[in-house]
Design a protein that fits this description.
The chain has one helix spanning 2-41, and strands spanning 48-51, 56-62, 66-72, 75-80, 84-86. The termini are far apart. It contains 1 helix and 5 strands. It is rod-shaped and about 75 Å long. A 5-stranded antiparallel β-sheet has the order 4-3-2-1-5, with helices on one face.
């Protein structure tokens, strides 16, 4: 009888700690990832963006997985969409 109760409490604590871990770590990370995917899907030509390397520029062309960004007069670079960190003015939402 004692050993059965001990296993019951052990299982209860495991479920309890997994629930806390899910609420504090996994769920917020999923929300953040969903917001990022939404931001990347809403990119459009002429948006100002900041890359993960800190480069500021304006989108000139959007392809399936890459974007062309103008960083200076007559200077354009092609970056993977995942290299875009945020769109200034939209990061606080």
């Amino acid at each position: 009888m004692q050993q059965t109760q001990a296993w019951g409490w052990t299982i209860f604590y495991l479920i309890f700690f997994f629930a806390i871990f899910y609420l504090l770590v996994i769920r917020p990370q999923q929300r953040q990832q969903k917001k990022r995917q939404e931001m990347l899907s809403k990119l459009k030509v002429d948006d100002r963006v900041v890359t993960i390397g800190g480069i500021h520029g304006r989108i000139t062309k959007i392809k399936d997985k890459t974007v062309m960004i103008r960083i200076a007069d007559k200077v354009e670079i092609e970056l993977d969409k995942n290299a875009i960190s945020y769109v200034p003015g939209q990061e606080a939402k």
